[in-house]
Design brief:
The structure is a homotetramer.
Chain A: E1 5-13, E2 16-23, E3 32-41, H1 43-49, E4 59-60, E5 66-72, E6 90-93, E7 137-140, E8 146-148, H2 155-158, H3 161-175, E9 182-186, H4 190-202, E10 205-210, H5 213-221, E11 226-229, H6 236-246, E12 252-257, H7 262-271, E13 272-280, E14 290-292, H8 295-299, E15 303-306, H9 314-325, H10 331-334, E16 337-340, H11 344-352, E17 359-362
Helix pairs in contact in A: 1-11, 3-4, 3-9
Amino acid sequence: MGADSGKLAYLKGANKIEFREYDVPSPETGAVLTEVEFANVCGSDVHTWKGKHPSRKSGMMGHEGVCRIVELGEGVETDYAGNPVEEDDLIAPVYFKTCQCCQPCRNGHFHGCVEGTARTVGSSDKWPHFTGTFATHYYIEPNQYFYKIPEGLDPKIAATANCALSQVMFGIDEVGIERSDTVVIQGAGGLGLSAIAVINEIGAESIVIEGRENRIENARAFHADHVIDFTELETVEERANQVAELTGGAGADVAIEVTGVPDAFAEGPHLLGTRGRYLEMGNVSPGYTTAFDPALLTRNSLDIVSRARYDPWFLRRALAFLEETRDTYPYETLLDQKFTLDELEQALEQSEERNVGRAVLTPE
Amino acid sequence: MGADSGKLAYLKGANKIEFREYDVPSPETGAVLTEVEFANVCGSDVHTWKGKHPSRKSGMMGHEGVCRIVELGEGVETDYAGNPVEEDDLIAPVYFKTCQCCQPCRNGHFHGCVEGTARTVGSSDKWPHFTGTFATHYYIEPNQYFYKIPEGLDPKIAATANCALSQVMFGIDEVGIERSDTVVIQGAGGLGLSAIAVINEIGAESIVIEGRENRIENARAFHADHVIDFTELETVEERANQVAELTGGAGADVAIEVTGVPDAFAEGPHLLGTRGRYLEMGNVSPGYTTAFDPALLTRNSLDIVSRARYDPWFLRRALAFLEETRDTYPYETLLDQKFTLDELEQALEQSEERNVGRAVLTPE
Amino acid sequence: MGADSGKLAYLKGANKIEFREYDVPSPETGAVLTEVEFANVCGSDVHTWKGKHPSRKSGMMGHEGVCRIVELGEGVETDYAGNPVEEDDLIAPVYFKTCQCCQPCRNGHFHGCVEGTARTVGSSDKWPHFTGTFATHYYIEPNQYFYKIPEGLDPKIAATANCALSQVMFGIDEVGIERSDTVVIQGAGGLGLSAIAVINEIGAESIVIEGRENRIENARAFHADHVIDFTELETVEERANQVAELTGGAGADVAIEVTGVPDAFAEGPHLLGTRGRYLEMGNVSPGYTTAFDPALLTRNSLDIVSRARYDPWFLRRALAFLEETRDTYPYETLLDQKFTLDELEQALEQSEERNVGRAVLTPE
Amino acid sequence: MGADSGKLAYLKGANKIEFREYDVPSPETGAVLTEVEFANVCGSDVHTWKGKHPSRKSGMMGHEGVCRIVELGEGVETDYAGNPVEEDDLIAPVYFKTCQCCQPCRNGHFHGCVEGTARTVGSSDKWPHFTGTFATHYYIEPNQYFYKIPEGLDPKIAATANCALSQVMFGIDEVGIERSDTVVIQGAGGLGLSAIAVINEIGAESIVIEGRENRIENARAFHADHVIDFTELETVEERANQVAELTGGAGADVAIEVTGVPDAFAEGPHLLGTRGRYLEMGNVSPGYTTAFDPALLTRNSLDIVSRARYDPWFLRRALAFLEETRDTYPYETLLDQKFTLDELEQALEQSEERNVGRAVLTPE
């Protein structure tokens, strides 16, 4: 690989990854060229790799990550919080851009930008090539927010911010959680653990539903107030009864779905009390249904809020949150296995089996 | 039937109605004894009569209605808007009471009162007997809101306010509809037509999805901007495409489910654009599921608001709305068939076949 | 005083208090007769006593308090949270009733009930006489919420809940404070200290502006994050600069006025950053103006929320908050001086000089 | 003036305008060079010209306007609604840019961008010179939103959108106005008339307070429901009584200040009922106070929302609103006097005397 070339992982089709080499692009006005420092494997990467994404069958891979600035395009002097940036600085990019022009953007819903992730789809031959983080380089476009990693925050930890934690903080902000709420969290993977931390800091009470042993341990390490093991309470009814018991019969104020399992969505209304709010974030791949009873909603006047992605400025809040709470939660234990870029398939396999919290990739 | 006795319809079990006679109760402090002037048959009455309600298998029947004051309990000098009331005044009661003490009430969610409709369940022998509007008399309890019928408003029309229109106005207030919104209304029965009127007055654009000929006619008579006939566009995809076309490709801003059909709920996300809001009000009887794809929510960051019943003061707004708009919408044509109390079964049968907009009962 | 008579403090005019004796009333349906256990002196009592209230020049006195049930009216079996009550139970009453019929009540704004405090105005000869807490007895009307004192909560502390803490919790709920906010609190009297506690529990940062030494000490004892002593930073500009410095130049997210001093209101906009929110609760007596510059609002797109009283169910939350946090905050130190009912004038004088946090009255 | 040079009005100090000539700038990436087609004189231009702005004592002038595209910078293919643009298209620019990085921008409050109008301040020698609309050319920067003028909308009318109407639509969106509200509008200048139109389309009732005869006529031409002439009802009390009478004693639900007179702000609370909302937009120049009684807020639990500028996508809504309602409101009559750029001082003088609705400038 030449000094001015880089390598990227390209998905050709289900389970078929190919490494490709391209000249690194020179950043246009407003853009930034970076090297990938750490890239994490997120559940949706695994999903896409397995060919389960309804439309994205090929393209660049990876979206979580921390990068090191190689070259700043004209006009770029600061990150999107106004902090001066220069070569060699470590930054976290929002994994999608915001076009400002599409229907969601022009209603202030930047998280819904229809152009957001378009550039990772299609052929890698399309300049600027490096639009995924499973690569040696990453190209940040104009109007793609990025933020400097706060001093003293371990960059490996920071690499989780631009997907899991930002997503969770945005969702929780949108659904609204108060100190007096009791919140059920369905699933203790990356998003679920992030949710426990955020809910704890709000001062609300958390009840985690999870079945895998290592995830239950993680939930406890993140100070979940209660854990319901679904290998012990095997039916919806048993779990609903347990939540009712833990809430003095009222049911939870909020429940958060971060399992990616459609049946978890159908379980949601059973866990909530009157005027409960449900935050749906985990099911992101259309094509999978669950038998859902809509009258369970009206019976208790429930609300559902669903969000994919986040308004880009939430990444800054996520990084600040990590910095503030790094001694309270064992973020590092989640990143429990390291892989090189060349070991990507192994990392995906391990992640698929949910044996790791988050697999961390380094370019070499 | 003696001067001091009355008659009420009692549901003994699925399809079994019995008329029973009781002494009319003397109103306690804060209560009001009334005679029923008009009672309408609502879809949920039919549902309960057929034995399809999951828990209410027997009890007093009827909840929509307009009543004439017979006797005021001690301390009752005005309606719940402060208007003086006296014997012989026509009033519309909220069909449920608000205990002020239960968990929803004590969070200001009066619509969710857990005691709300408890008194219509169980034996009719329980004093004060007359807790349903399919009867000669109706007993309004303390803390059960009621409002005087505005001067010049036809009481038959007013009789629709305390269920359909109040429900719709509350739901629309909760989901939030603005002048610039395009709103799909699934179903043009009593709630659907009320929704068309309210949406029109807000200035928003309405698209009604309906298949029965008489209901389509009604939708047009209520000035629906567009009607999609589901007997012509038979698949979800076709209807979704039609909504997309009517909205310049964006999808609707809001959709409202008032069909009571679970599959309509599953269709909802297909009709909405990014950050669309869905108002679920029609499916009120648990026990019926639909194959629902939760990723259709996250894909577009959709929200769902569901509500059963309404904060009691919305009945006052509903009556005012009817008064203001009585010349704009043909409310009277909806009440297209009259029955006496003794003809209740016929009225229910006709309603079940959806041949009538709303059947109107008079005590004799 | 006979076994069936009681004594109450009556304000005849500015600074003129008279003790009067009446037969204790028998509770009507829905009402409760109580004996006053503790009554606190609030700033507004002092204000009214001095003749500074614009309209209330005479009437019954006192509104904070904890009472012991003497007799329950017909139909009263529980408090407004559904807890069973019986004779001798200690309860905290909301100090105003909610008519359910007036314009604010019928829009769900129970805190604004226009009939709320009407009954404390006018002659004490009017039955049921005992409508103020500076008395041996207190009569709770139908539709006047009350709550049982939680087990293990010192009733003296509970006596502060029905004015100061409920007010603060309602106001903060309305203005909205999040964990990441920095909040300036103008004034560390009863409301200010309550505000510090609530803000701490939300996890937000607090900056208190106060000048009296004992109040500054109290603010620190309640774990205020920062205190600005206005006897040291004497000008608005100096204090604004200090707030700017403490917030990295941004200004506060929220400021809360609980001094009752009009000039504090005019200072508010100087303390806030862009889109700051201001909560006005302290200035409750019309007739006193301050030189206010409205362009300071638009310059930073500020919002102001003002509230007097609270939705009655907030009293329940306030009692629960006290119970939860009784070991975290030194509530008892605030109630630093005790008086008998006969010493009322002394208690008012001491309170006027702001030498006491809250004066506690006991009937004897 | 050479083919490649243009002319701009520069404010040297109070009442001192100088015309200056510069080479027209070539647009950088993401920018657009335009010629000014129409520029309107807004009240704040007059204010700045008179030297009354607290900080802007010199700089480029003019911010309302419609422009014709001369040259598109690299990468600019569409307006901010995604409509393709090319040379000679007429567009309306948002008069400020949004940096995306400052504290307000990074909380999604783009209207509050601290860099927003910075570029119009200071020397005109600073490239790109043409940052005000009182000029032959106007330079639209990257991240400065602009929208194509809809087909069939008179560009002179469109020229009012980017200040008055966008401001009003944003403010009304933020304060929230519903069909059932009664709204007082203080002042019937450009913002006031825009407010009448928007309120009418929402279906709410409008009460305008104004004294100048031509403005009262305009208010009526814009279909104000009621007009209070303050030359007839001369005191706050009289006007408050009149509003009370028009609202059945309740007071207005909302009041909007668009006079720019501090005393109007102090009058606001007198016009509102319980839980009334006040929208402050007119007072934008700090340094002028009014005697304000904050207890008038708490007495009725009032809220104040203040906003300067608007989220940039509101300009698109404003243009759409004008297009939709151009036959309903006599927008053109407001632009009652035309001036050339050279006649700028005359235009400012006429505007100062409030003899014109909006003076229209054309470059020649």
